[in-house]
Amino acid sequence: MRAIQVTQFGGPEVLVPTELEPPVAGPGQLLVEVGAAGVNFADTHRTDGSYRGGVTLPFVPGVEIVGRTETGRRILSPILETGGGYAEYAVAPANRAVDVPDQVSDGQALALLIQGLTAWHVLRNSARLRAGESVLVNAAAGGVGTIAVQLAKQFGAGLVIATASTAAKRELALELGADVAVDNNPDGYADRIREVTDGVDVVLDSTGGSTMLAGLECLKGFGRLVNYGNASREGRPSIDPSALAQRNLSVAGFWLVPAMDEPGGYVEPLTELLQLTAAGKLRPLVGAEYPLEDARRSHEDLLARRTTGKLVLKP
Description:
alpha/beta; Rossmann fold; 2 domains; zinc ion binding; NADPH binding; NAD(P)-bd_dom_sf; NADP; oxidoreductase
């Protein structure tokens, strides 16, 4: 089968097309003919060797797939333990396979699996958003951000502020339901937010570094910041609990992998997201689609911030 294999850690250049034997499904697994594989920012960390928990060489990247089982089911599944999504065939855990409604495209389904579940959890469980509260979404034109903006409105947020790096990306956030969109440059960040509101209840941040710290400045009393990434690749900032106490602030970290094993942490929210999409109430943003052999280009575009929405590889 055609696949992308990584034999040494590095940048996008290590994503090499190759021919491999198809995987064999073991107990509790399904063999899936991959219709599409999702491309995630975390894939770039796996490829360069910086991913939390480590990755063993050689490996086939890709941890989310949509495709057909041998019985014809159209399923969506994470393959976090085995990887191997950047290929024509992959094996998926049977207990993670969720059927995809006909009204939901491959790209939309993939956008919901990691980005959608992340947005759902950071709003529901980490930030514990209450109706009427204000939400500031950093990187609002990204995979998680575009869904978080929409879900915040679905969950009753009173004000949704989006930040993004370009005018086009800010316009996109407004189209998706944000009330206000501002430049995410850390210089002057807090001042731009204060022009809109005197403080926000929740900040969702996947950028880390100086942008995360700027977001912390924007919280009102008892505000909550949830960090779920370090896309800036800056050093992780230290946060003084005594400084947080001066305004009763909370900072939480989120990682999807353990959340999926919590009771009600996977099938139920994913089913809700698929149903919202099938009903036209949620619009997962599908970005560029690449042939499998162009996996390198997909990572280059992602790292260069040239993309919006969900990136998809098509075997």
